[in-house]
Design brief:
Length: 510
């Protein structure tokens, strides 16, 4: 424990170096505040982390990103951070950045740009032109209601319009048309938000869909570059970032303000303001259950998280499998919404396929990632184990066997999409809900944090301010998950300290 009287007091102590933590640190450091970021793991970046196996680079969370065409929202945010020109990006195919594919072999491509997207859908479903037009108009209309999404600061109109938050995605799409296949095509990429039929609000669908329609890109050689470039920006503006610093508790003054956080190794960090980029339920554990109102605590701790994932990473033999400059959403079931509540015998019924773009490989893919839904209950019997690079632990032989069997099920499914792919495979690795739980530090390894619910929208809303006067929240649970959602939530968190109008003007002028 440090007891030195001269211990530095930071303006901001940020717990967790996921995108939310790094983005807050960058904004505040650029505004002249002294900032320190504390990360428990060996690698910064949360879902931006990558890892390397058999000389192949694999992304854990970010496989592609939207909103990066010139002048679009994420383009401007990255420009403001000073990292845009340092990111190595590859734009996905104009006519087909996503491919929605069904068990009967039928394929439907999403094109980039709203008009192009609309025209192409109408080409597949000429008799449904009106429904498709109404759908695209609704995407635009809903996205207009979220000021920050459009780099505006005008009031949060969507908060007062109950209809915006309570409109259900499945119900709205179903109301447009009786054509079941079109409904499934429109919701075909719902793995992007782990869509649940009678819960997922349409605004979640709309904000995510629209962002990919305004510039879908892959990160060349992995998504960790965002974390690397943001951490450089933080340090360049005088901020500090420390790894292997697991925050476990906090000290308070008589007014109930946090004075310092305590790490597992006994080290302390003093600060005026504290920002947690950790899941709200875990934040409550760290900062002391007794410091939060039981109403808030019970609500946050009982909120349902979105489902977790089983991620299969395949390395290919040299020059054996062609690189795909688009992603595939494969559905082996008739209703794309039913993949979340899957049947174990026919799992995976729905999954996401992508081939990372590796600069030195050219036309051939180095690897492939396949993301399937997996409920944390499937790995519950090993929940008592823990293993990361920073804290290596042993998992049981049965766990390794479980992963092997699941990998085999996924490869068998892939054979139906790419016959003969097994012959191209050099090696297979996988990550389960436990992997995500241990690295990201959230209860069930949830992919996208707290599940938004159109039936009670305000219940799932997490404010950036907490009952503790100098503790604030950021990250995917605040407004929305994903690169854009988390970046926006970092700005929302920082509005408590920086003039909102001036800050957004800086983003627009970047």
């Amino acid at each position: 424990m440090q007891t030195s009287a001269v211990q530095k007091e930071y303006d901001f102590v940020i717990v967790g170096s996921g995108l939310g933590g790094l983005a807050c640190a960058t904004i505040l450091a650029m505004e002249g505040y002294s900032v320190v970021v504390l990360e428990k793991n060996h690698q910064i970046g949360g879902h931006l982390q990558v890892y390397s196996r058999d000389k192949s680079i694999f992304d854990t969370g970010v496989h592609y990103v939207g909103g990066l065409d010139e002048g679009e929202n994420l383009y401007q945010f990255f420009k403001y951070f000073g990292i845009l020109d340092k990111l190595k990006l590859k734009r996905l195919n104009d006519d087909q950045f996503d491919l929605i594919r069904f068990d009967d072999g039928c394929e439907y491509a999403y094109a980039q740009g709203m008009e192009h997207f609309e025209q192409q859908l109408i080409a597949y479903f000429p008799e449904e032109a009106e429904a498709i037009h109404t759908y695209c108009n609704k995407l635009n209309e809903i996205c207009e209601k979220f000021p920050l999404y459009n780099l505006e600061t005008a009031g949060d109109s969507y908060l007062t319009e109950e209809g915006v938050l309570s409109l259900n995605a499945y119900d709205f799409i179903a109301s447009l048309t009786d054509n079941v296949r079109l409904r499934n095509v429109l919701a075909g990429s719902n793995l992007l938000y782990a869509g649940v039929k009678h819960k997922t609000p349409f605004y979640v669908h709309a904000l995510i869909m629209k962002s990919y329609l305004t510039g879908a890109y892959k990160f060349v050689d992995g998504g960790s570059q965002i974390a690397i470039q943001l951490s450089r920006a933080v340090r360049q503006h005088g901020g500090e970032i420390y790894k292997h610093k697991k925050v476990v508790s906090a000290h308070y003054n008589e007014k109930g303000h946090i004075t310092e956080v305590v790490c597992e190794n006994g080290e302390t960090f003093r600060g005026k303001e504290f920002i947690s980029n950790v899941h709200p339920a875990v934040t409550i554990d760290i900062f002391g259950q007794e410091r939060f109102l039981s109403v808030y605590k019970n609500r946050v701790q009982t909120l349902e998280n979105s489902i977790s994932t089983f991620l299969v990473h395949i390395s290919f033999q040299e020059n054996s499998f062609k690189y795909l400059n688009y992603n595939i959403y494969q559905h082996h079931i008739d209703d794309v919404w039913n993949g979340v509540e899957y049947d174990q015998a026919t799992w995976p019924q729905t999954y996401f396929i992508c081939t990372p773009y590796i600069s030195k490989k050219g036309e051939y893919a180095d690897s492939m990632s396949v993301m399937c839904y997996m409920d944390a209950s499937e790995t519950a019997q090993w929940a008592g184990t823990f293993s990361t690079v920073a804290e290596p632990g042993k998992r049981h032989a049965e766990y390794a066997q479980f992963k092997k069997e699941k990998e085999a099920q996924v490869i068998a499914r892939l054979e139906t999409v790419f016959p003969g792919i097994s012959g191209d495979i050099k090696a297979i690795h996988s990550a389960s809900p436990l992997t995500f739980r241990d690295y990201i530090g959230n209860g069930n390894g949830t992919m996208y944090g707290i599940l938004k619910d159109s039936t009670s929208p305000m219940k799932t809303r997490i404010n950036t301010r907490t009952k503790i006067p100098n503790l604030h929240l950021t990250g995917q649970n605040v407004s929305l998950h994903g690169i854009l959602g988390v970046t926006v939530s970092a700005f929302v968190t920082c509005f408590s300290f920086v003039d909102k109008e001036k800050l957004i003007q800086k983003v627009k002028n970047a």
